[in-house]
Amino acid sequence: MNNETSTLISRDGEEKIVCHKYFEDYFVNKEGYILLKNNFISSIYKFLNISFIRKIKILIKLIFKSKFYFGKIKKRDTVIFDCETTVSDIDKILPNKNYEVLSTRLDKINKIYISSKIIFFVIKNVFKRGLKQSYLIGLIKEISPKIVITEIEFSPDFHLISKALHNEIEFIAIQNGTPHIFAFMTDEMKQKFFIPKLYCFSEYDKDFYKKNNINVKKIEIIGSLRSSLSHEYVNLKKIKIDPEKFDICLVSTPLEIINYDYPQVKNLADCVGLIAEFTYRLCKKHNLNLVFSGKSDHGTKYADREVYFYKHYLKNYNFQIHQSLDRRVEYSSYVNIMQSKLSISGICTILREAIALEKKVLSCNFTGHPEIAFPGLGYELSDSSICIIKEPKFEVFEEKVLKILSMSNQEYFNQLGKDKFFLMRPTIDAADSMRKILHEKVG
Asked: Which pTM does this prediction carry?
């Protein structure tokens, strides 16, 4: 396993990243990062990120890049919270277009609304909470929506703001990912977690939140919204699905920056690379048809990072990652899974969604780390489950994959170790279910 790492900072001093040594040249030469290798640069970085200096920098940057809107603020039925929410998904289930998309991340905010009520609210609460949170609360109160909705259920801003306003306005979160994030949340973060109403994937998720005393007031199971919308997309575009077009769909989960997700799992990137190498070696050996489903949109820096990451591990293979122009609109990974006999990945929510699509999956945890579990923390399937593999040996991987490919769906799901609908409720009707719920709330 590769233990050599490099620490870099962005040229504006805003971002500090840790990557494996082989990624250093990419970040320096392609994206302009600076190697944090001497005391002088390190001292400058620390100075620029002293709390009050960093806040001044952010404020100045925000002022210069934003457009200001003064006066009366238009009322809306709905606020879509956080532009990183898949707005196109929410748009498809809302009963009308009378909504406002609220950017909540400082690097995404480019519009600032100013009114006497917002200014008064911010001044009144200057010592109670952060400036940004007070501004967002004041703005939401001015918009006066019937509901505030998000797919970013782990957003600290959503938790804080919904706690402040949930008695006045209904706040709704739709589950977007498996709650692995609790594996590396601090106790302070857990205490601040608050969702008034969560629409979740399955009994597993509902049990998880209750068992771990996570502060979610109400939970209702609907299944996966994105999976349901992918069905609708296939029907709308009249895509002819061949369920056996590919033998294997390898789902990409690159880990270019190792101090962001799962920093406690030191060998995660190498294990992700090993999954890809094993899959390509197996397909080459047995002449299997493979689609490598990408995580990033073609033409973006994230797509370039994704390819560079896998080049390190697949240097002996002429691989091609299927990257769509807009995966959020085209549902490319879901379509690839629908057309594959078996989907393979590491820690990845879409494997659970695949099970609900009646597709076979294999979750590979080669890290040896207990927090990288399928389907998630506290409910890890046993080693005997047909969909689990932990031993990082090609011969073991080969045997299990070939066994799964030879099985019928019924034989496979009988050896899953859990009721498949406990892991993910059937999702075809999830979008229509949410439409009915939102129609009642918004009208």
From this structure: 0.90
Secondary structure of the chain in HEC code, one letter for each residue: CCCCEEEEECCCCCCEEEEEHHHHHHHHHCCCCEECCCHHHHHHHHHHCCHHHHHHHHHHHHHHHCEEEECCCCCCCEEEECCCCCHHHHHHHCCCCCEEEECCCCCCCCEEEECHHHHHHHHHCCCCCCHHHHHHHHHHHHHCCCEEEECCCCCHHHHHHHHHHCCCCEEEEECCCCCHHHHHCCHHHHHHCCEEEEEECCHHHHHHHHHCCCCEEEEEECCCHHHHHHHHHHHHCCCCCCCCCEEEEEECCCCCCCCCCCCCCCCHHHHHHHHHHHHHHHHHHHCCCEEEECCCCCCCHHHHHHHHHHHHHCCCCCCCEECCCCHHHHCHHHHHHHCEEEEEECCCHHHHHHHHCCCEEEEECCCCCCCCCCCCCCCCCCCCCCCEECCCCHHHHHHHHHHHHHCCHHHHHHCCCCCHHHHCCCCCCHHHHHHHHHHHHHC
In the CATH scheme, what is the code of domain 68-228+431-442? Answer: 3.40.50.2000
Q: Where are the domains of the chain?
A: 5-55, 68-228+431-442, 237-423
pLDDT above 60 for 47: no
pLDDT for residue 83: 82
Higher pLDDT, 305 or 35: 305
